[in-house]
Design goal:
This protein has helices spanning about 10-20, 30-35, 95-110, 125-130; strands at about 1-5, 45, 50-60, 80-90, 115-120, 135, 150-155. The chain is α+β, with helices and mostly antiparallel strands and about 160 residues long. It has one domain (about 1-155): 3-Layer(aba) Sandwich (Aminopeptidase), CATH 3.40.630.30. Strands 1-2-3-4-5-7-6 form a seven-stranded mixed beta sheet, sandwiched between helices. The protein is globular and about 40 Å long. It starts with a strand and ends with a strand. It binds coenzyme A. Coenzyme A binds near residues 98, 99 and 125. The site of coenzyme A has 18 residues, from strand 4, helix 3 and helix 4.
Length: about 160
C-alpha cells in the first residue's frame, strides 16, 4: 500500500475499466483532479510489483455523498473520511488487497482525528462492506441518486 500519485492515473483507469460498466466509468480528467485534490488519502495497492487496486478517499462531512463523475470537494471542518471508490483488478481478487486498503484508510482517518468513515456501496458490494464492519445509514444527499439503483450509503467508526 502507498499513497496514490499522479503517475498512477493509467493504472487506475485500467482497473476502473475492468471493474465497472460503461455508465459508471468516470472521466480521466475527473479522476486526475481527485488524485491532485486528495493527495495523502488516496491509496494504491500492488501485487508482484504491479498496481492492482486503488482506494479514493478524502476528508468530508457525515451524510455527504460525492456525485458520480464529480470532483472532490474537501471539507474545511471534516468529521468523516469518505471512501469514494475501492476497486481491485479481477486478476488480484481475493488476496486481501481490498481489506488492506480499507484498513490503511481507516488508520489514516484515526490519524486525522475523524470520528466517522462513510461510503456509497454499489454493484451488490453491501455484504462485502458489512463483513468489514460497515452498516447502512440514512443520507438526505441527492448525490445518491447519481448512482445506479441499489446504491447504499454506509458508515462505520474508524476505530
Ligand atoms: C469488492 C471488492 C473490492 C473486494 O475485493 P477482494 O479482493 O475480493 O477483497 P479481499 O480479498 O480484501 O476480501 C476481504 C474480505 O471480504 C470478503 N468478501 C469479498 N467479496 C465479498 C462479497 N462480495 N461479499 C461478502 N464478502 C466478501 C472476503 O471473503 C474477505 O473476507 P476474509 O478476510 O474474512 O476472508 C472487489 O470485488 C471489487 O473490486 N469489485 C469491483 C469494484 C466494486 O464494486 N467496488 C465496490 C465499490 S463500493
Amino acid at each position: 500500500m502507498r499513497p496514490m500519485l499522479p503517475a498512477d492515473l493509467d493504472a487506475v483507469l485500467r482497473i476502473q475499466a475492468a471493474c465497472y460498466p460503461a455508465p459508471m466509468q468516470e472521466p480521466a480528467a475527473v479522476v486526475a483532479s481527485r488524485i491532485a485534490a486528495a493527495r495523502g488519502t488516496c491509496l494504491v495497492g500492488s501485487h508482484e510489483g504491479i498496481v492492482r487496486g486503488y482506494l479514493f478517499a478524502y476528508p468530508s462531512r457525515l451524510g455527504l455523498v460525492t456525485d458520480l463523475n464529480a470532483p472532490f470537494t474537501l471539507a474545511h471542518q471534516p468529521d468523516t473520511l469518505y471512501l469514494h471508490d475501492l476497486a481491485i483488478e479481477p486478476c488480484a481478487l481475493g488476496r486481501g488487497l481490498a481489506r488492506a486498503l480499507v484498513d490503511d484508510a481507516l488508520c489514516l482517518a484515526r490519524t486525522l482525528g475523524l470520528a466517522h468513515a462513510a461510503l456509497v456501496s454499489v454493484q451488490d458490494s453491501a455484504r462485502f462492506w458489512q463483513a468489514l464492519g460497515w452498516r447502512a445509514a440514512p443520507t438526505r444527499d441527492a448525490g445518491l441518486d447519481t448512482y445506479p439503483h441499489g446504491a447504499l450509503y454506509m458508515v462505520r467508526t474508524p476505530a
